[in-house]
Amino acid sequence: MFKHLKNRLLLPFIALLLPLAATAQTAAIDRVNPTNWWVGMKSPNVQLLVHGPGAGTLAYTVNYPGVKLVKSSTVENPNYAFLDLSISPTAKPGRVQLVGKKGGQTVTQSWEIKARDNAPKGQGVTAADFIYLAMPDRFANGDPSNDKFADMRDPNMDRANTFFRHGGDLAGAAQRIPYLKDLGVTAIWFTPLTENNQPLTNEGGTMRASYHGYGFTDQYNIDKRFGGNAGYKSYVQQAHAAGLKVVQDAVYNHVGNTHWILQDLPMKSWLHQWPTYTNTTYKYQPVTDPHAAQSDRKNTLDGWFVPFLPDLNQQNPYVANYLIENAIWCVENFGIDAWRIDTYMYNDQPFMNRCNAALLAEYPRLHIFGESMVNNVVDQSYYTRNTIGFPFKSNQPGTIDFVLEYAMLAGLKEVGSPNAAGWDNGAQHVYQALAQDAVYQDPTKLVTLLDNHDQNRFLSEVGDDLDKYKMGLTWLLTTRGIPSMYYGTEILMKNFKDPTDAEVRKDFPGGWAGDKEDKFTAAGRSARENEAFDFVKKLATYRRDHKVLHTGKLMQYLPQDGLYVYFRYDATGTVLVASNTTDKPASLPTARFSERMAGFSKARNVLTGESLSSVATLQLPAKTAVVLELGK
């Protein structure tokens, strides 16, 4: 999310340390979360967070057929009550009346249980998919009327300021669904859409907006600057109708410091509290280190990510229930297909297992993959289902494969250099990362990438070299895993995080009315940009249409002399990928690969359409990867 943001900002977080006492004589209820539930969920239980002046001083009853109040709990702050309900499968949809009494006062709050619909939800993403990651504020603006609101803590919108909101929204993204379909994308992942009613924050001396979406202020509202709950439902329906799946970005570790709950904290233990402000060290090693000091582990896990994102205590059962129920609510309410989980490794891992299990119990096909930015396969495997004897066993189905990303970038940077054919250089980085896949129960569930919203853009990382760019995209779209691509990579958007990450989060040209260039269209792109777009489209479309690149086995051969060869194969076909990482053309005799090539005498070049009448020796241009569909 915010990769190693080190500045120490001052904020009045001390005011959040103690719950406020309810002083109102008349009790009232102003909020119930979840905002509704459904009949027929696999788990009949739901815990309601009820808030209002003196809400925790009321004695509650529920009189609705099939709905039972199992338990009513109070906490430190008398403005909260937690009601455990059981909803029978025989209950009918309708309005449940929560009745609270205190002396002669009666407070009644209506709360709805709905019928489940048959709309697709929890479909999951698999290796058959190609995920497109976009920042909604920077992708396209379809409704200028929701660009800014005077009643929000940040009422600004200014595209000339890289740190302010720019007005992108779900209406604009919906208009670009045909563009994504044409590119060969099968799933869209937006950075968080959840309400971020945060003021501008002073980060490193610059006032910045929460346009990125990682400072939640109400988990039950989609930010109205993106189109609100109705706009998100509409977008998901349009995406599904077009054959696109939707990945939601979840944050469990923290919330924005103006989250509505933090304005009237239920209890001190809702957050990780410290005598003085304590930031996480961002060091992941103490979590898995068998020799680690407990204090180091605590600092990593319980320290705040940044000062304006208070750290949630997921060991608090009320916090845990609140987050888990919101996750289920989001899938059921909006119909999303997969979860990407922010800052996964900073969460309490037993809580994450419980949350994952609850989601998968309701939606068995749902895919869950978290962000754990580590640089080795052992630590990376800890946060997903693995084969290592860790004392804690994660149940997360997937994770983001940063280790393979770092390997691909390291190898690509050496392409064309004298180091490309070195013992541990060039494609050896990629080979060695994949050679350790035995640590994962299922490495095909890992989400692969070349960059994202927190990193330097891929094209800049490889020196604006189109040959390296094509080789990297070839690896991404033909190796194992679920490939993801950051918006604008297909049109050669570039930049480094210098001086800030705003430089890698530029607006997509053509996403706003009046833009000088519209790169959503071929006419608006340069010849070089169209070459890149067409390259991605051709490879992504081939991947989409050929099962061998989804579920086919992977066999790789040790790189030799800067040449790296691997195969994807199954009963439907065999695809050979050969990369020449040197700066000179090379002839590649294929006798060494007879284990996979026996019986094949010809091939078709997937990228050029060229037919090869013989595959005994392959001619590989310098700094090029070829993709060959083998034939007999």
Automatic annotation (TrEMBL):
<dbReference type="InterPro" id="IPR015171">
    <property type="entry name" value="Cyc-maltodext_N"/>
</dbReference>
<feature type="signal peptide">
    <location>
        <begin position="1"/>
        <end position="24"/>
    </location>
</feature>
<dbReference type="Pfam" id="PF09087">
    <property type="entry name" value="Cyc-maltodext_N"/>
</dbReference>
<dbReference type="Pfam" id="PF10438">
    <property type="entry name" value="Cyc-maltodext_C"/>
</dbReference>
<dbReference type="Pfam" id="PF00128">
    <property type="entry name" value="Alpha-amylase"/>
</dbReference>
<dbReference type="InterPro" id="IPR013783">
    <property type="entry name" value="Ig-like_fold"/>
</dbReference>
<dbReference type="GO" id="GO:0016787">
    <property type="term" value="F:hydrolase activity"/>
</dbReference>
<keyword id="KW-0326">Glycosidase</keyword>
<keyword id="KW-0732">Signal</keyword>
<dbReference type="InterPro" id="IPR019492">
    <property type="entry name" value="Cyclo-malto-dextrinase_C"/>
</dbReference>
<dbReference type="InterPro" id="IPR014756">
    <property type="entry name" value="Ig_E-set"/>
</dbReference>
<protein>
    <submittedName>
        <fullName>Glycoside hydrolase family 13 protein</fullName>
    </submittedName>
</protein>
<dbReference type="InterPro" id="IPR013780">
    <property type="entry name" value="Glyco_hydro_b"/>
</dbReference>
<dbReference type="InterPro" id="IPR017853">
    <property type="entry name" value="GH"/>
</dbReference>
<keyword id="KW-0378">Hydrolase</keyword>
<feature type="domain" description="Glycosyl hydrolase family 13 catalytic">
    <location>
        <begin position="133"/>
        <end position="543"/>
    </location>
</feature>
<dbReference type="InterPro" id="IPR006047">
    <property type="entry name" value="GH13_cat_dom"/>
</dbReference>
